[in-house]
Amino acid sequence: MREPVFIKRNTPKWKAIEENPTRDPDELTERFIELTDDLSYARTFYPESSVTRYLNGLTAQMHRGLMQSKREDASRFITFWRYELPLLFRQSHRLLAVSFVIFLAACLLGWLSAANDTTFVRLIMGDAYVNMTQENIEKGDPLGVYASSDQATMFLRITLNNIQVSFQTFVMGLLASFGTIYALFSNGVMLGAFQYFFYERGLLLESVLKIWIHGTLEISAIIIAGCAGLTLGNSLLFPGTYSRLESFIRGTRQGLKICVGLVPIFIMAGFLESFVTRLTLHPAVSLTIILTSAAFIVWYFIIYPIRLHTIRPQ
């Protein structure tokens, strides 16, 4: 292709790129690929031409924009975890307390129900699970269920299930918060009955030191997911000065961000349950993992948001 034809054919595209800059990463990438193709062609056939120098400069400018966009994307990711989510969560501390109280009350009810009704644990946990656990107790390995599956398969299954449960707990807030309350209540009753089952057999401490290696993060995340669901439900029930639609949109956005923030927690909980809980650890090691997990939850979701809010009030 002769140089004048090449210039005439592509000039409208080059002008559009210069006169209509974009910050969209996908469009930037597409433009950059087109320019590098044109530059490569010009370097091959018109190496000393002014059009080659022009395209080289335009491509370099596009490359800087692309790199800046990538840095902004990385910065946005860091900003979300370091500032946005904690500050957002500071607004939800009251509902977090409500979620915790509901879950704790359900745990106590599950414990008391199991203590006063010998069939309650089977009703809640199912005959198959209870029978399997009793068989493991007789074998001298009461929590052998955690070593009964392949680690990688178990990790994937548990993590996906926990993420699904958290999002279901959140979405159930659409039922004017009652759906979320039900989800918290049913999970709390199950946990209370489960722990009483081991207490009744003199295995409470052993079960706590093993189960709560992953349970500290897992249960905390479910309570926090409950907070997200209550945020969604309350946006419908109590719109305040906003229209009900605007309140719902704001509540949905806030609750969804909280749920997204829980994904790494569930991944870590799934890893601990699949690869660590099955191990026979010294009680001091188990206790260290449990306390470290609890300290992280309290710091990141309660203490840090309060301190950050004081420094950067919203």
Automatic annotation (TrEMBL):
The keyword Membrane applies. Keywords: Membrane, Transmembrane, Transmembrane helix. Pfam families: SpoIIM. The keyword Metal-binding does not apply. The chain crosses the membrane at residues 95-114, 165-185, 219-242, 254-272, 284-306. PANTHER family: SLR1478 PROTEIN (PTHR35337). This is Stage II sporulation protein M. It comes from Nibrella saemangeumensis.
